[in-house]
Amino acid sequence: QHAYFEPFFRELDSAQNEQSFYRLDSAFAAFPSAGIIDKAQKYIHKAIIYRREAANSPKMLLCTDSLQTLLEPYKNDAAILPLYARSFFLSGDAYFGLQNYEKAFENFVKGKNLLVNSGKADWHIYEYTERLATLNYRQSKYAEAATYYKQACAEIWAAWKGNFEQFSEIQGNLDNAAICYNSIGQYDSAIKY
Length: 193
Known about the structure:
This protein has ten helices and no strands. It is an all-alpha fold.
């Protein structure tokens, strides 16, 4: 990633609004030799801003489609593959916002499989599994959601570093599994989790 763009990415992350897109786009227009990773980060940052409101899901989907088109020719490059996988994760979020749960599921699974099959997965792989759980929960598929929430915990445990972030993510996923079990009347399981 080129240092030239860092201030613009920081501004975008700090402002978290579409007005900061104009400055970012101007910076890219003024710097014609932006690399693939720089361009990918531009789409990722924009998609994350759009993700904050479901009404922006169509705009988010445009960013993720552009991101996938940009990265697809380089997907076998070790530095690009995690970004390519993330593009599917973000597409899944966009489809989730559009309530197209089938496409959301498809994208979450594709992104996760890309990382797992490449050997590039770390403990954050749970985020894909957690999204699959939430997707099932939203569709009132509580038993399936509970299974995914517990799987997310197992993925975090598998790469346990003992930090607070991991602890809080495990706790949140266990709580969510308990809510799922409560929703289907499996109160003993709900108490356990």
